[in-house]
Each structure stands twice: as C-alpha cells, then as structure tokens.
Automatic annotation (TrEMBL):
This is histidine kinase. GO terms for molecular function: ATP binding; phosphorelay sensor kinase activity; protein dimerization activity. Keywords: ATP-binding, Kinase, Membrane, Nucleotide-binding, Phosphoprotein, Transferase, Transmembrane, Transmembrane helix, Two-component regulatory system. GO terms for cellular component: membrane. Gene3D superfamilies: 1.20.5.1930, Histidine kinase-like ATPase, C-terminal domain (3.30.565.10). It catalyses: ATP + protein L-histidine = ADP + protein N-phospho-L-histidine. Signal peptide: none annotated. Pfam families: HATPase_c (PF02518), HisKA_3 (PF07730), Sensor (PF13796).
Length: 406
C-alpha cells in the first residue's frame, strides 16, 4: 500500500519505515528547509534594512513592497517542497487578476487575505521553523556521531559508544516524525480549513455525511417495517393456511390448493427475510462487522476465508459501508471472476480501517464493464474513503479499501 504522507507511513507501518524512502525524503525536506530558510533570511533581512534606510526615496518603498510580497515566492517554493513528505498537493489560493498588467496584479495580490497569510507563514518559517529543522538534524545526526567519537579524546568515555550506537537507529524516526509534523504545520498555514475553498469542502463533506446517515437510518426503518410488519403478516397467513388445510378433506382439490398457497407464502417469507438482510443485516447491528461478514461467507457459493480483527465496534457508517463492500465484492467474485476461493481481511491502522478482498479468479475486472466496481467506489467515496483495484489479466483480483474511522 502506498502511503500519501510521512506521518501515515509512521502511523501505519513503523517497522517498515527504515526500508522505505520516507526517511530519505524527510532528510531532503529538512535539509532543503535549512538551506532555503538561511538564504531567505539573509535576503529578506537585507531588503528590510535597506528599505527602511532608504524609505525617504522611492526605492525604499519598492524594497518594502517586495518584502511584503515575498511570501508569495516563499510559499510557492514551500508548496513544491512539501511534496517530498506529503504527496497531496496544496492548491494555490491566489486568483487571477481581472485585468492584465503589473498594476492590476499588485492590486489583486495586496487585497487578497492569502497574501498576508503567506507573509505571516514566511515570518514564522524564518524565525522558527528552519531553526527547528536545524536543531532536529543536529540532534538526530550530529549528537550520535559526536558521542561515538568521544573515546578519541577521552579513552575512558568508551561506554558512550554504546549510547551512540543506540541513538543512531532512532535518527530516521526522529527525522521522519519532525518532517511529518513540519509538513502538517505548513499545510495547515498554507491551506487553512477556514478559507473559502475549505469551507465549501467542509460543507460538502458534512452534507455527504448527513446523507449517508439519513440513508442508513432509512434502511434500518425499512428493515424494521419488513420484519415487524409484512413478514409477521405473512407468517400469520401461513399459519392460517395450515389450519385451513386441517379442515379440508385430505386429497381434495381444496387441500391441494391450500398446500400450494402455503408453499408460496413460505417462499415469500424466505425472500422477504433475504431482502431484509440486504437492507440492513441484523447480525451487523447486533454483533458487528466480523459476525456479519461470517454470515455472508456462510451463504456464499464460493469458499470464503474471513480474517477480521477489530478491537472494538466501529462507527455505524464505517461498519455498514464495509459490510456492503464485502457483500458486493463476493457477489462480483461469484458472477464474474471464475474464482475458487475468496479471502476477506480487515484491520484498523491508526484512524483508518483497511479492508482487502482477494480472489484467485481470472482477473481483468474493469469498472466500465458493469461489474459493480463503480457502485462500490461511490459507496466508499460517500464514507470519505478510498478504493483501489488490482486485477491483472489472469488474476488475482484485489480490492483494497481505506475507510476513516476517527
């Protein structure tokens, strides 16, 4: 599974971080931050001093204007550099000027809140962030080396070599953790949630979550109505037909018709039970995702291995989405894959539930071919999750789903 951020790599697979590229990417991120921060500090301080000193002439105002707009250049580089440890790009908040020309551009930029927010980030970065990058690099890399070399000056300090050897393996984790935290602060300041775009995205996500909750509540109501209403009436009718058969003369035409009617009612009851399970399974409500998946496996035509380990019950939306993903995936495997066995596994990692469904079928699953993958993707997206499909020709087919479960 490909992680999108260094923080996610640390949270989900801390033991595999050393074998990945994240420590090196984090090191490059911090080193470039130190270099860029040092150069930018010298340049901007020089411009600020020169601008204040020459304020009585026009050139001083131009220099100070350049300092005020420096955040645009600094944050553009920061957005590009952020991709080292955060693969999701930060959008540029600036809008295009309504008119061409330098004056229109300056007027637009000076009136945008994003310009002054970026100047604030530049001030924080130059006075604090790159210095902290330097301190973290010094602590993670220089301190262990100095401790290891201490016996050269004092042979009696040889026990410090053991301390240095213990500190070295922690360096990649220290560097990666700080780079991830630094990137999170940068993203928070450059793309705040209270921006206009952030507010719109938040509103859309909240609306989608409300729709999912309303739809799930409606499913539960339909399931209760089917179970307590129509299903009970059919069971009662089946009992009455059985009593009527007792009053009919054995072997008569009426007895045969009553027997046939009773069989039809019995089939209707079974179909209604299956329908109510599909609307919202009782096992999911009462016992959780693992038990509901076991029920799906027991009813499947294919042999299904279920390996779901959850320390506690998840949110209703997460459990419901995961259940219907499993149900649809098993139906697809039965109809289209030609598989002989299926494996379903689920684990919580940090604040994400990872769900994988694998079959040994012929592969070649294509969302455009009407195999139900488009519906699965829509269902997962409605829960703010991600779905990935790997299905090369010849198989196997793997559905990997990530559902946030904060």
């Amino acid at each position: 599974m490909r992680h999108r951020t260094a923080w996610q790599a640390l949270a989900q697979n801390p033991l595999n971080v050393l074998a990945s590229a994240w420590p090196w990417r984090s090191l490059a991120y911090l080193l470039s931050g130190v270099a860029f921060g040092a150069v930018t500090t010298v340049v901007l301080v020089s411009l600020l001093v020169a601008g204040v000193a020459s304020l009585i002439v026009v050139v001083g105002a131009v220099l100070l204007l350049g300092v005020a707009l420096s955040g645009i250049v600094v944050t553009r580089f920061e957005r590009w550099r952020l991709r080292l440890v955060d693969l999701d790009p930060v959008p540029d908040p600036h809008r295009a000027p309504e008119l061409p020309g330098l004056r229109a551009w300056l007027r637009t930029r000076l009136r945008e809140p994003a310009t002054w927010r970026e100047l604030g980030f530049t001030a924080v970065s130059l006075t604090a962030l790159w210095w902290m990058d330097l301190l973290v690099l010094g602590f993670a890399l220089c301190v262990p080396v100095l401790v290891l070399l201490s016996p050269l000056d004092d042979p009696g300090a040889w026990p410090l070599v053991i301390v240095g050897l213990c500190l070295l393996p922690a360096a990649p984790y220290t560097i990666t953790a700080w780079a991830a935290a630094r990137a999170a602060v940068t993203r928070l300041m450059l793309a705040p949630r209270d921006s206009e775009l952030g507010r719109r995205l938040t509103d859309v996500q909240a609306s989608r979550a409300r729709l999912v909750d309303v739809f799930d509540a409606e499913r539960r109501r339909i399931e209760r109505d089917l179970h307590d209403g129509a299903q009970q009436r059919l069971v009662s009718l089946n009992v009455r037909l059985g009593l009527a058969r007792l009053d009919a003369e054995p072997g008569s035409s009426l007895a045969a018709q009553l027997a046939d009617a009773q069989d039809q009612v019995g089939l209707a009851v079974e179909e209604l039970r299956e329908l109510s399970r599909g609307v919202h399974p009782k096992a999911l409500t009462d016992h959780g995702l693992a038990a509901a998946a076991e029920n799906l496996a027991a009813r499947s035509v294919l042999p299904v291995t279920v390996d779901i380990r959850l320390p506690h019950r998840l949110a209703v939306t997460v459990e419901t989405t995961a259940y219907f993903v499993i149900a649809e995936a098993l139906a697809n495997a039965t109809k289209h894959s030609g598989a002989t066995r299926v494996r379903v596994a689920a684990r919580p990692h940090a604040d994400v539930l990872t769900l994988s469904i694998t079959d040994d079928g012929r592969g070649g699953a294509d969302p455009a071919a009407g195999t139900g993958l488009t519906g699965l993707a829509d269902r997962v997206a409605a829960a703010d999750g991600r779905l990935r499909v790997s299905s090369p020709p010849g198989g196997p087919t793997l559905l990997h789903v990530e559902l946030p479960c904060r």
